[in-house]
Design brief:
- This protein has 4 domains: about 70 residues, Arc Repressor Mutant, subunit A, CATH 1.10.10.10; about 45 residues; about 100 residues; about 80 residues, Alpha-Beta Plaits (2-Layer Sandwich).
- The protein is about 35% helix and about 20% strand.
- It is built from 12 helices and 14 strands.
- β8 and β9 form a beta hairpin.
- The longest helix has 19 residues.
- InterPro entries: CBASS_pafABC_assoc_protein, DeoR_HTH, HTH_11, PafC-like, Tscrpt_reg_HTH_DeoR_CS, WH-like_DNA-bd_sf, WH_DNA-bd_sf, WYL_dom.
- It comes from Amycolatopsis tolypomycina.
- This is HTH domain-containing protein.
Length: about 350
């Protein structure tokens, strides 16, 4: 890998780097246009192309009225060319790779060391101060071959068939079938979002629980996820709603100062109500879950609304009383709907 100087150079080596940079950003380049960009003759361009070929770059001559050149992928990896911003971006991406769970951590460390060795001193110092840690728990490891296979199926718009090892579920008699649309990582876990034609709806699956079957199924016509934003769509599924908002939201006054509440408010809004008390607006996937989550603050709670939240506190109080008395529980109520059980666990 080489880092291209930002300042232009009239030396042959500098011109070669500039030529290679141009060939990398466009498929076909007419010879006259390259010559004009570099400020040299077409004959000089031909000589420089020959020099790049000697270095291992596969550059094909393009036939046509104007003629030209095309940089093709070769059978071996020649030196790569990045400008300074690209080199720093590459180093950041490699250092972040450990938090993806994609099974490439060791290779990413080796690649980062290779990149670092060829960086100019000033860029190496910028990269060395980077400290990036994975948030949201330990990443769940995924076979990179599965990620590549799913990515290829998404690009080819081919249905995938797979077995799914969900916890507390019997094994499927037949493989599942899904039209894959998006592959993304959230909190160290990889998820596949796709359309299930048999039960027409969007589905989300954890990739680490998938065992792919071959061959893939038939081609399909891609769709757009509800709302058009796949990250917001996945976040909504975790909240058990159609949109990226909690289906159950309430407002309370907590008997704690806002400095004690805010660090644990999650995506809620905490603000001072009166000295020593906090107004908290927050949500959850059910009223019982919302009430139980608020009880963790271990303080007096004044429910401002809605009535469903008060009723949930009353129900929890009854359960707590029965548990303390060792009495039996009443008949179980139906659980609230969770839009996607695979993603919720």
């Amino acid at each position: 890998m080489q880092v291209m100087p930002v300042a232009s150079s009239t030396a042959t080596s500098g011109r070669l780097l500039s030529l290679l940079s141009l060939l990398q950003v466009r498929r076909d380049w007419p010879g006259a246009l390259l010559a004009g960009r570099l400020g040299v003759s077409e004959r000089t361009v031909r000589r420089d192309v020959d020099r790049l070929r000697e270095l291992g770059y596969s550059i094909q001559a393009v036939k046509g009225p104007e003629g030209g050149y095309r940089l093709e992928p070769g059978i071996k990896l020649p030196p790569l060319l990045f400008d300074e911003e690209q080199a720093v971006a590459l180093a950041v991406a490699l250092r972040s790779a450990a938090g993806t769970g994609a099974g490439i951590e060791e290779a990413a460390v080796r690649a980062l060391d290779t990149v670092r060795q060829v960086l100019p001193t000033r860029l190496r110092q910028r990269v060395d101060v980077l400290e990036i840690a994975a948030a949201g728990g330990t990443p769940v490891q995924v076979d990179p071959e599965i990620l590549l296979a799913l990515s290829a199926a998404i690009r080819a718009t081919e249905e995938v068939r797979f077995d799914y090892a969900a916890p507390s579920r019997p094994a499927d008699a037949e493989p599942r079938r899904l039209q894959p649309h998006h592959l993304l990582v959230r909190s160290g876990r990889w998820y596949l979002v796709g359309w299930e034609a048999r039960r027409p709806d969007w589905r989300t699956y954890r990739v680490d629980r998938m065992t792919l079957r071959v061959p893939n199924g038939p081609r399909f016509t891609p769709r757009e996820v509800p709302g058009g934003d796949v990250a917001a769509f996945l976040s909504a599924r975790f909240k058990g709603s159609e949109t990226d908002t909690w289906p159950c939201r309430g407002e309370v006054i907590l008997g704690l100062p806002v400095t004690d509440v805010a660090p644990f408010a999650g995506d809620g809004v905490a603000e001072e109500a009166t000295p020593g008390k906090t107004r908290l607006r927050t949500g959850s996937w059910s009223w019982a879950a919302l009430a139980a989550g608020l009880l963790r603050f271990d303080c007096e709670i004044d429910v401002m609304g809605p009535p469903e939240l008060r009723a949930a506190f009353a129900e929890l109080a009854g359960r707590a009383t029965r548990a303390a008395d060792g009495g039996g529980a009443p008949a179980a109520k139906s659980r609230p709907k969770i839009l996607d059980a695979e993603a919720a666990r």
